[in-house]
Specification:
It is a single chain. With 271 residues, the chain is α+β, with helices and mostly antiparallel strands. The protein has 2 domains: 226 residues, Sandwich (Jelly Rolls), CATH 2.60.120; 41 residues, no CATH class. The protein is built from 10 helices and 10 strands. A 7-stranded mixed sheet has the order 1-2-8-5-10-4-3. Helix 2 crosses helix 5. The longest helix has 17 residues. It binds 2-oxoglutaric acid. The site of 2-oxoglutaric acid (AKG) has 8 residues, from strand 9.
Length: 271
């Protein structure tokens, strides 16, 4: 079962469940108007998409990226509403607690709108830490957030997760009864960590399932999506400083200087 907490839960309660189960839902955290604006801002991008295999897909395409699914990346450049969700105070407090023990600053890894359409198949269960292939066990590398912009139901492809598999470091395949689905209402958010098994569900309903995802990682890991091209300096200059830093315009200890040895890249945005 995936634990659901109310919007007024403390970040400490969320962190406790996340450390234990590797996943948690916080109900009704986003303003419904913000969800409506996000859906409206992304609609033209979803309408224009072509259902083709991605270029240079490094994974088994049909298993990892099933067809009939809208996947829009570079979302900071495409939606103002999304920018607000990315820096939601609850998410920031959870990332502070989960990630700062292993880095000086954390950053965005990917931004994506994920919309399985009716008829899409389930995605293979996978772990986000496969991206970096570090020896295990390792500390938490990533916290992913999936905002429900539509309701998430068993029928429309609510994310599958295996609670507790964040603590499985050997070879273990989950039993069917260990796989749960993150059903949640619009405006809720599902959080998970990098080592928990998860994947999008199949959409057997007659309407798309609309999720807006943002993943946050340790400041010394390579970002999956190249944020400096997705959010170039001209755009970054218009964003709140908290978001500039999350994009990557900040130092992580000695890493990430720009212009001059040791210079914080955020100073170049201010110049
Ligand atoms: O869409 C979902 O529910 C999960 C998506 C996911 O895990 C992925 O695309 O890697």
């Amino acid at each position: 079962m995936i634990k659901s907490l109310a919007a007024n839960a403390s970040s400490a309660e969320v962190v406790e469940v996340l450390n234990r189960d590797g996943c948690v839902v916080v109900e009704s955290l986003a303003d419904p108007q913000l969800c409506a604006s996000l859906a409206e801002e992304l609609a033209p991008f979803l309408a224009a998409r072509k259902d083709e295999p991605p270029i240079n897909a490094p994974y088994g395409y049909e298993d990892f990226l099933p067809a009939k699914t809208g996947r829009i990346v570079g979302v900071i450049a495409k939606s103002r509403a999304y920018r607000t969700l990315v820096i939601h105070p609850m998410i920031m407090a959870v990332c502070d607690a989960m990630l700062l023990p292993s880095c000086a600053t954390y950053q965005l890894c990917t931004t994506a709108v994920l919309v399985p359409d009716p008829g899409s198949k389930a995605q293979v269960l996978h772990r986000e830490d496969q991206l970096w292939n570090l020896p295990s066990p390792h500390p938490v590398l990533e916290v992913a957030a999936m905002w429900a912009i539509s309701d998430f139901t068993k029928e429309n492809g609510a994310t599958h997760l295996v609670p507790g598999s964040n603590l499985w470091w050997g070879d273990r395949t989950p039993r069917e009864d260990e796989i749960a689905q993150a059903e949640m209402g619009r405006g809720s958010v599902l959080l998970w960590t990098d080592h928990v098994l998860h994947g999008a569900g199949a959409n057997r309903s007659d309407a798309p399932r609309f999720g807006a995802a943002a993943a946050y990682i340790l400041g010394w890991l390579r970002q999956e999506e190249n944020q400096y091209l997705a959010v170039p300096p001209e755009l970054a200059r218009t964003l709140p400083e908290e978001l500039q830093k999350l994009v990557g315009y900040q130092l992580n200890g000695g890493l990430g200087f720009a212009g001059e040895l040791g210079r914080d890249p955020i100073e170049m945005l201010r110049a």
